[in-house]
Amino acid sequence: MVCRKPPSKRAHRLCKLDIQTDMTSWATPDMKNCKQLVTMSDLFNITVTTDNAAEVVDIVQDLVDVELSNSSVLSYLELDSVVRKLNEVVDISVIKPAVGADIVDVIAVILLSETNVTQVATTVLKLTDRMADNMFFSDQSVSVTAPSLAISMINVAADGFKGLTFGVSSVSSLLDLKTFVNWNFVSEPLPDTDATISLPSELNSCFTRDTTRVQFQFHGTPELFQDTTSTAQSQWTLNSYIVSASINDTDVSNLSYPVVVTLSHHKPKLPDDRVQCMFWDFRKNGGLGGWNGSGCETRSISPHQTSCLCDHLTNFAVLLDVSRTPISEANSYILTLISYLGCGISSIFLGITLLTYLVFEKLRRDHPSKILINLSAALLGLSMLFLLDSWFSSFSSYGLCIATGATLHYFLLASFTWMGLEAVNMYLALVKVFNIYVPSYILKFCAVGWGVPLVVVGLVLAIDKDAYGNVVAEQAASRDQSTDPFCWLQDDVFFYVTVVAFVLLILLGNIAVFVVVLIQIRRMRANKPSAKSIGSLHDLRAVASLTVLLGLTWSMGFFSFGPGRMVMMYLFSILNTLQDSGRF
User: Where do runs of H (alpha helix) occur along 394-535?
Assistant: First the structure.
């Protein structure tokens, strides 16, 4: 029969005939031409030497393949035997690239199986580190890759070190990894890479010899990085591959110039999602390891990538905060339907309001009426743009999407600015009644109401016009939903500064005016005994009117979290989409 290894050789056995009994039987097989087959239990009896290290790795590789072909997992004893024997090979033998590639293959096969490797994860990570540090090769660099695992080792001279950048790309899948090395510090991610890590030139101060070994590792599976703490499991989930860098025999920390790590997301980041750069801390959980965010600064590049600036070298990844309750597809559909239906009704009433004030001149003579006309115009523009946004987005025009997003942004800011001016006018009319005269009153209000939003949107376009783009399409893709595309702010920084902060500032001012005006109304009624008989129903109507006029229902959006999140979101959608008809 053909030997399993090497297949070019043959084993044989003789068929014996007993002359006395005329019976036949097989003689003992002659296996001297074949490599001896062993079992997992035999591994303990194999002594690793510098001469047989490559053969031992082959035996381990064969045993793992056989065991996993019969079962999808290795038992803990089998796993422990394999890891111990590979450690002996790394400790005793000089590792050559071919042997190193076999070791990486063994580890990759185990990681891709259903074997629980949590108990030996730290040992395996330190094993690959030592193997890469001690590998002998004549070239300046060498890389070994296996499905979901890649290691690059580079011999770097301290003189003339300009930095080093390592990248990994999964061409079609994790089964086919490509590694890239750039002999310079590159702060931007290399094209078409899933992970890059760039070391600054100042790192040469950590080199302890003329030629230093720098190694990079890429892990496409999270099996070696399981944080077992209950808090971590409930709040964070791994949202990228893991990449690491190290310098042999050196603990690199507290760097003045940070290491730049850029990682692609498994799941696109939504506007409300929070991502954080973290490193694998071997000291956590009694030596089992856990994720730690200290020493790393998170910079979001896009919904698909995050950049990390870290002051040390180790294993890095991007984690996604999953502590917030996601919106179900059914609730998302209902909320969208309410928003579109409410905006349609609001647009009709806003149109009627504007038409009424424009036709009847007597209605628009005082200041409150003129302010209401401008506010209604801003809200009508906001409602119409919201309804038409998806249609404009469907044209897939880059320029049209930017224009649509910027215009929607403008009308949103204009609506809130006019709500703020409504509060200012109300304060002046009811609180500061006497000795108040402002020349060109409405003209100045128009300059602020329409001019401030124009300045804000103009600055965003001047700084980065690509801040506007198609964001909901990316969200829908990540949720496997058929939500229509939507043009809006896609940059988190611009969104929080020019929308959230802007709206919050106006709402806080309006709430203050709301309280002051209510107090003033109560005082006025206290001075008129006849007014006391009107009753609490009149007070309730006054409160409701002020709430709508000052846009205070928008404050519900800031409280849409926690157990009552869905209730607040439904109230937010219903009250805000229908508040304009309430104004009418």
Answer: 398-430, 441-463, 472-479, 492-495, 501-526
State the helix-helix crossing angle for 565-583 and 367-393, rounded to 10 degrees.
120
Of the pLDDT bands very low, low, confident and very high (cuts 50, 70, 90), residue 562 is: very low
In angstroms, rounded to a whole number, what is the distance separating the alpha carbons of residues 309 and 287? Answer: 25
Predicted pLDDT at 151? 94
pLDDT digits (tens, 9 = 90+) for 323-362: 544 555 566 667 667 767 777 777 787 788 788 888 877 7
Q: Is the peptide bond before 6 cis (omega within 30 degrees of 0)?
A: yes
Structural contact between residues 580 and 383, judged by C-beta atoms closer than 8 angstroms: yes
Distance of CA 496 to the CA centre of its chain: 17
Helix (H, G, I), strand (E, B) or coil at 146: strand
Report residue 467 CA to chain centroid gap: 18
Identity of residue 396: S
Secondary structure of 111-150 in the HEC alphabet?
HHCCCCCHHHHHHHHHHHHHHHHHCCCCCCEEEEEECCEE
Cα(283)–Cα(246) distance, integer angstroms: 17
Residue 327's Cα: distance from chain center in Å? 17
Out of 63-77, 389-403, 525-539, the most confident range is 63-77
Residue 516, token pair as written in the block: 């002051």
Instruction: Give the predicted TM-score (pTM) of the model.
Output: 0.57
- Flag whether pLDDT at 478 surpasses 80: no
Q: Look up the CATH number of domain 139-324.
A: 2.60.220.50
CATH 2.60.40.10 fits 329-397+411-440+502-583, yes or no: no
206: CB partners within 8 A, 6+ apart: 247, 250, 252
